[in-house]
Amino acid sequence: MDLYFAPLSCSLATRIALYESDQPAGFHQVMLSTKRTAAGADYLAINPKGQVPALVCDDGEVLTEGVAILQYVADRAPASGLAPPAGEFDRYRLQQWLNYIASELHKQVFYTLFNPAVPAEAKAFAREVALPQRLDHLSAHLKDRAYLVGEHFTVADAYLLTALNWAAPGGVDLKRWPVLAEWHAEQLQRPAVARAVGEEFALRAAA
Ligand SMILES: N[C@@H](CCC(=O)N[C@@H](CS)C(=O)NCC(=O)O)C(=O)O
């Protein structure tokens, strides 16, 4: 497998899933501004949408969209517990959270805050209305739980911690949500998470 990623972007969740499940992969950095890989290849030829992550599977199939990639990676290593088995109710819970993080938190909040092309009114809505509503909801869910789904770390947790990494650079003080601040700090202690985040911080710093 080959993962196309940009440091500390949403593709970090897939790197975490690969490390958590001890699966080997090649990693190819993408310059999102130029749509070229660090090696100079045309990224649009791999993913015409120009976004990360993209996963080139062992048979050459290219999979895009983070929530699909995360489940693919998890299903290749069922013993990792990164996703409940297909058909079990918790698998739908997992998809519920993955979709919530992707559509409500990643895109509606952080994409809006970080994208310079988004008008100021939309940013104000994201910061003052959408963000607190989403983080209140997540905080209430995690108040008495260690993980989003069931009793194990899953790819939904990998995606959520990746999104919460964007709070500080987005000017959001996570301490307003102590449950989330504590949960996030705990996840960053996981060896696979610390390794993935550390490596991508170094790549970002070198860029
Ligand atoms: N729908 C895609 C969105 C992925 C996405 O937004 N990736 C960002 C990085 S976090 C990106 O590639 N941005 C560059 C761009 O949109 O041109 C998914 O869920 O995988």
- Stated plainly, the CATH topology of the largest domain is called Glutathione S-transferase Yfyf (Class Pi), Chain A, domain 2
- From N to C, what is the helix and strand string? EHEEEEHHHHHH
CATH C-level class of the largest domain: Mainly Alpha
Shape: globular
- Poorly predicted runs: none
Q: So how many helices?
A: 7
Could you tell me the number of beta strands?
A: 5
- Multimeric status of the protein: single chain
* Sheet with most strands: strand arrangement: 3-2-1-4-5
- The percent of residues in helical segments reads 40-55%
Mean pLDDT: 97
Give the helix/strand class: alpha+beta
Bound ligands, named by name, code or SMILES: glutathione
Radius of gyration, whole Å: 17 Å
CATH architecture of the largest domain: Up-down Bundle
- Tell me what portion of residues adopts beta-strand conformation: 5-15%
Largest sheet, in brief, is: 5 strands, mixed
Terminal-residue CA separation: 24 Å
Structural domains: how many: 2
Write structural notes for this entry.
The chain has 7 helices and 5 strands, in the order βαββββαααααα. With 207 residues, the chain is an alpha+beta fold. The chain has 2 domains: 2-81 and 193-206, Glutaredoxin (3-Layer(aba) Sandwich); 89-191, Up-down Bundle (Glutathione S-transferase Yfyf (Class Pi), Chain A, domain 2), CATH 1.20.1050. A 5-stranded mixed β-sheet has the order 3-2-1-4-5, with helices on one face. It starts with a strand and ends with a helix. The structure holds glutathione. Residues 6, 9-10, 32, 50-52, 65-66, 102 line the site of glutathione. Glutathione (GSH) binds at residues 6, 9-10, 32, 50-52, 65-66, 102.
